[in-house]
Amino acid sequence: MGKAVFAARPFALGEIVGEITGETIDDPDYCSRYAFDLENGNQLEPQAPFRFVNHSCDPNCSFEVIDVQQGRTGNVRRQLMLFAIYLINTGDELTIDYNWPVGFAIPCKCGSSYCRGWIVGEQHLSEDPEMTALSARQAADQAASHAELNQASSQS
Predict the structure, then answer these.
(1) CA–CA separation, 58 vs 2, rounded Å?
(2) Residue 5: CB partners within 8 Å, gap ≥ 6?
(3) For a surface tag, which of 47, 53, 56, 103 has the fewest beta carbons within 10 Å of its beta carbon?
């Protein structure tokens, strides 16, 4: 089982969870399973703990690249911030949607009722017929499972 990051305290909707820091890589061909695109041709290879934030198709966090002006010099520093997009309670696992392109997609096992079946950007699902078919099957299986649970709870 992989590593994960859990909230040490509660976070409100929209609250900054933290800054994702690490090594900035200035190489357009650089690729790693943890790197974030800084939208300027650079990648950020994150340090712990945020290096270990896992994917979910229904995440409770998102990340945003922001430019911050530094003091009197006027220099701009690009920062990658993690924000709560839902209320996060102490002990909740922090998750983001990786939104990978099709070429990097792997099967998803996030367990969310909204699981797409693949760790891939939702907008990319239609680019691959195999992904579209698997996602449709998983959605049907999830709907059937929810119907069975609802029927069982109404009978008790």
Answers:
(1) 19
(2) 49, 50, 52, 53, 54, 93, 94
(3) 103
Residues 6+ apart with CB under 8 A from 148: none
Strand arrangement of the beta sheet that strand 61-70 belongs to: 16-20, 75-84, 61-70
Angle at CA of residue 38, ends 37 and 42, nearest 5°: 85
The pTM score is 0.76
Three-state secondary structure readout of the chain: CCCCCECCCCECCCCEEEEECEEEECCCCCCCCCCEECCCCCEEEECCCHHHCEECCCCCEEEEEEEEEEHHHCEEEEEEEEEECCCECCCCECEECCCCCHHHCEECCCCCCCCCCEECCHHHHHHCHHHHHHHHHHHHHHHHHHHHHHHHHHHC
Distance separating the N- and C-terminal Cα atoms of the chain: 36
pLDDT digits (tens, 9 = 90+) for 5-63: 999 999 999 999 999 999 999 987 888 878 888 777 788 999 999 999 999 999 999 99
**Tokens 């099957």 belong to residue:** 137
